[in-house]
Amino acid sequence: MKAKKSRTAQYYAENPDAAEKRREYQRKYNKSEDRKAYRVELKRINRKAGTYGNGDGLDYDHAERKMMSARKNRAKH
Length: 77
Known about the structure:
This protein is mainly alpha-helical. It folds into two domains: about 1-30; about 40-75, no CATH class. Helices cover about 60% and strands about 10% of the residues. The chain is built from four helices and two strands; from the N terminus they run αααββα. The protein has a two-stranded antiparallel ribbon with strand order 1-2. β1 (about 60) and β2 form a beta hairpin. α1 (about 5-15) packs across α2 (about 15-30). The chain is extended and about 45 Å long. The model has no long low-confidence stretch (mean pLDDT about 90).
């Protein structure tokens, strides 16, 4: 059984020009100094917790200031 695409995914599948425009924006956004600093901060926290790169599926939750499963953390927002 194949998972159903979200409305956003359906839109970008049907509108490749819009999808490319979004990807261009995302590439630019992810290169910004703010985003780079944010990623550095997350890596530092993960390394300190001993979870960086070990595939344990944990994320740092900024609201609760603790490590939790990526699935639970990303579903909260």
